[in-house]
Amino acid sequence: MAAAPTASTSGGDQEPPPPLTDTEIVNLAHQSNLHDYLFSASSHATLLSYLHTRSRSPTPSIAVSEYTLSLLSLISLSPHHPSLSSLLSSLLSAYTRLFLSFQIPHDPNSLKTINLFATLLKYVPVKDLEFIVESIVMDLSKLLGSEDTQILDILPGCFSCLCAEKGKECANLILDRIFESEWSKVVLVKMVFLARELAGFLDKVRARELLEKVFKGMKSVDLQDLPLLSYQLLVLASKGFNKREVIEGIMRFFGSELGSKASSTVRQVEGTVLLHVNFAVKQDPSLGQEVIGLVKLDSKALNHFAVAVLLSVARVRRFSESSMGILRTAVLAAYSDYKFSRDCLWLPDGLKKEYLQIVQMVEKSILRAVNESNYGREHIVPSIVQFSFALLESLEGGNQGDLCNFGGLLGVEELSVQILKNLFEIHDMARNEIIEQCKLRVLSLKPEQSIPVIRLLFCLVQSYPYPVLEHVSRLKELLDYFTFMHGNVASCLVAALASLFKFNRDLRDYTILVVRKAMFKREDAVRLAATNAIISVLLAEKQSTRDGLFSLQDSSSQASCSQQAEIPCSYSSGGLFQELSGLLHRCLYLQAKVRKAMYHGLLKLVLVDPASGGAVLDFLLPHFLHFFKEDDDVQLQISGCVKSEGGKVVIEEPLDCLLSCVCWILLLQPHDKTNNPDSLWACFGFSFSQDNEVGRNLSGEAFSKAFLHIRKFLKKGNLEDILSSTLGSGSTAVEEENKKCCALILSGTIEVVLNTIAIELEKATDLKRVDLENEILEFVNFHESLEKYSCVKQSSVVKSQNVRANALDMPSFIKDGLTQEQIPFLATSSLCQLMKTALSLYNSECSRSSAASQNHSQLPSRDTLKCFKIIHFVLNSSLLHIRSYPTGRKEEPLKTLIYGEIKLMGPPLLKLICLLNSGLNFATDQKKEMKGKKAVEDRKEHLHLALLCLKELVTISLKNSCSTGLLEDLLSASTLKYDLDEEYEEMSRIGDQQIRIKVIFIVKILRPLFAELLAQSSFHEIEILCEMLMMVCEKLPSKWRNSNGSWGIHVCKSNGIRNSRVARSVAALAISLSSPPDDLIVAQYMAKELLEVIGLERNTQVEMSESYPIINQSTSTAISSCILKFIEAFITDMHWTMKKLKMFSLVWQKSIHLSQNGEDVSGFAVEDNLYLRAEAVVKVLSSFVLMNLKDPQAEHLLRLTAKFYKHLAQMSRLRIAPKGCKQLIPSPTFQRLVEITCKQLTVPLYKFVAELQRGQQENPNTKVIINKIKRENKFIPDLIFQIEDYEKYLIRLSKVSKVNLLKHAKRSTSRDFRILDNRNNGEDAPNSHDAANDRAGRSHDSEDTESERVSSPQMDSPKAAEESDGENGHGVSNGKRIKRDNNRVVRDSDDET
């Protein structure tokens, strides 16, 4: 053992201590004994040489580690000694070089050594530490293995020593060099682990740079290291290390960068990270707030991982409601924003495309999050269920329904259903909860909200019948509440479950039991629902039979023997229909609407299974014979169809519906090939092969004979005789109501007969056709004679064909969807045939009329009258038929039977329009005669009806965005003349067929028809054409919309139309169809011309505008209303735009970089576009405030202006930068908007208000004045408040931006707006007027002073700022004024800075 160092006692030179070997040093370390040799400066080189020698040994790791640790342990005994401190520095430097040059292994031994070095760093001289750190930074890119980064553990200690000696600047320079160097994936991971220790040396900027470099380099990190890396980042965030950036980076990386790799390993990694996030949020709730705030602020952040994070955070009780709420709001906002951007014409196309991409991304993200929910993230399944049902509940009122089939989007309802379907398929544990939630929500929600849930249940039943059958007990519990549900909900529920009946007989039997009980309830709605449910059960049985399933045996749970015997599985002879005939028979004794539902249901049954028609006829025949007596003089017992209850007459038996049902069943039955040409009814014979069909054939023959008798009876019957036979004893009022009811039933019966004749007419020969046409004329005449009874205002009687029930939007799967609506008695094919007949008769009548006019003879008035009657009947019936057309719900057999191809009505309808239009030209010469006037009026009425029908048809066609068949048929049938020009040649070259057909339809049909009707002064018809033009043009791109807008402007400039409604329609076309910004330019020109026509002074008004003759004294009010309505629409758009600009501003201020797709650019583009539009609106409104408007329009103008100033104030407030952000100079567009607003709108607006109030004082009607004052007390103070609020923010913006924005603001009148009382004596009034003028003058002077104060160089001084932000320059000192100022409610909102 070496002796302890001792002091020399001799006066000579001290002898150097003997050198030590490396082994001796190791032994000394074990003994913890220092040797004098270590204190000698000359020994350092030798000691370091031992380190290099050991590094070259066969086992360098152990050798170097043993020696280095021994030497460090000895140094630690006296680290403050200068010699040992120098030795420590040299040793650390040498070891670092060996480590970085890979001369020694990187293993646990080296890690142990480096950790011991880290404890002694404070004894190393700062200059040496700086050199060591520099060497590490230079070789940072060489560290490629996980153990190579061990040397980085000394960095936190080095930074601590450097900061203590040289300050943070030195550490910042080194950190900058570290961030600039290239990092391998292991260095990146190591830096994240060290970030917690380095946090004290990182400011916000460098911390953000570190996170950006980490998230940028995470792509290269091994997948198995990502969960640990994410966990460390979350730990950092929980310690307050840039929480927002950490959460943002994790959600961006796993949502977009890593999200493109859809392997199972990636999904497992994401699932583990989700668990880490969930745990971190539980430990630190502020992280949950960051997650929610991030998605709330930026809609583009909603990638699939962000959705999963929100669903995972929702499992934390504290964030359950907020997380679900923000996710639901984000989805709904994505749809609503896209819908708005799609419909808003002045938004940039890039922004529209962006919102479409957002909503598509939202749908894909949510569906992907659900589909991947079985990869280590099962804990989010309950949240998915909760979220999906919350989305379904948001569908009340049919929100977002129009988006379901537009642009390939699913829509809210379809998205929710798809989520739950996928979840139902993937997770067994979720099925029970989904069925339970369906049950609870059907029972607890309002009917409008329950229907989407039932549609979901239907989708589950159709897609996964066997898994749903595992929960049949819950379905039975739901059916137990059948009688307590809303009628439509109960009907839809049974229809949704009907598909399960073929798999589970017990469920079908239970449903029948529930329905049987419901049938005996007192409530009408319950009985109606039960009837619909019976039909659904029967349809399910027939459908399963048609599909080849002849047994309803349950594959999962066998029914008992007694049940099998009670309801057999084979239905070859009657089957379930026979079993339920008792319930159906009870329906025949219930209310009329229940009977209607049953008749429609039986017809559906025959449509699904035509072979069941015989059984249905057998069932209906006895009931029918109660109302048909073949031997009586009045064979049709209409009196038995009505009854009196409580002084009201009601229809008890809808005999017309019964006849329609039976007639269709007879037509649908197979018939023999030997058709009797004498009558259509011969086709009602049957040729069944079964033995028992003889009886059924008798029922069909009985009905056929009955219809023949009814048809003959109605042809020769007298209306008064039929109606008089129904009268009994009672009051006259009851008798009149009785007649009305009978007339309704008779009119329906006639329509049934006409439908049959039209079908027969299709196949008739020429001779037979003439007889049938005469028969049609007789029945139409009979039908018209009933109108005097049925068209009277009905207090207790409802004509079911004219009124549609306010029913729910029934789901497409409900097979009885029209039971709540009246099914027309006339089919589409029948109406087409009747229309062709009317065309034929009208053509022949026109030719005879032309010949008669040439021979100067009278028109054959009787034939003309008959022709007009059939046209009137056909057009009225067609209009009702088209309006009842169920758009998008045509897949049901009954609707297909009735409506068929409704576009077939287009060509004959257009031909009829052309004939009626030409007839108007012909009849103009005879208009002076009474009969000629009547003919012209009739033709105009018929033309009006025909155009209404065409408009409804076009509406149906346009709703189907991929179909132009109707328009093509109309173009091929058109006989209108049109001009061929260069524009038409350009149209014919349009590549998109949908657009080309629409454009040519406008040019070939609508515009020529408009010109002809305008020449005839057919103003009501022109309005309809304008509506059609607007509808079609809304489907066109900007170029062709603008073309039609130019045509509308040409009409306005070339026609002096005096009809106000037509002028308003044409002006709306000219403005609305002009592409922005041309639309507001057109509005400006029209407003200037309006100012000349209705100027402020009467002596300056003109009769008609020279540039726009359509603007004249007769049409000025209508056109001004049209322009104000257009301005109001833009101001409404401003509300949405301001919300988006506020969001853009927040995103920009908080440096959200989650979505790097040019969001800021989009925001600034929208802002600049908004300023330009607002400037144009100011120019339009500036003309209106100079007009002499009537009171309603003046009030409307002031309300619009108040809203406009409110949005201007919001614009100005958004231009003010919050604290900590750089204030930008307002753009030139904004400055020009402020200047024009102050000059052209604010100043004249005060004069307009003063003039409006002065006009009130001149009005002698005191009551009118009082009412106007009450109204103005609401909107005039609000207008003044909004103007002052706007100017307040302009003052603030001027102060912070050093730009004088109020140099043109000059208030010109007093703000008191005191109402002067005319009842005062003549002396008081002038004095009051002078006092008001004096106050106005003082206010004028004070505001000039304020304007100078704002524009002065000392504007930024505190005193000036206080004055500028104070009273807004009100220099009035009277008590009332001071009281008003003290009570002002101008306050800064909480979110102002």
Shape: globular
The percent range for strand residues is: under 5%
Let me know the average pLDDT. 78
Structural class: mainly alpha
Region (Disordered): 1-21, 1313-1393
Protein name: Fanconi anemia group I protein
Domain FANCI helical: 286-367, 553-790
Biased composition (Basic and acidic residues): 1313-1322, 1331-1342, 1380-1393
Note down, in words, how this protein is organized.
With 1393 residues, the chain is mainly α. The chain contains 58 helices and two strands. The chain has a two-stranded antiparallel ribbon with strand order 1-2. Helix 10 (185-198) runs parallel beside helix 12, helix 16 packs antiparallel against helix 17 and helix 53 (1191-1215) runs parallel beside helix 55 (1262-1297). The protein is globular and about 155 Å long. Residues 1-12 have a biased composition (Polar residues). Residues 286-367, 553-790 form the FANCI helical domain. Residues 124-282, 380-535, 1083-1320 form the FANCI solenoid domain. This is Fanconi anemia group I protein. InterPro entries: FANCI (IPR026171), FANCI_HD1 (IPR029310), FANCI_HD2 (IPR029312), FANCI_S1 (IPR029308), FANCI_S2 (IPR029315), FANCI_S4 (IPR029314).
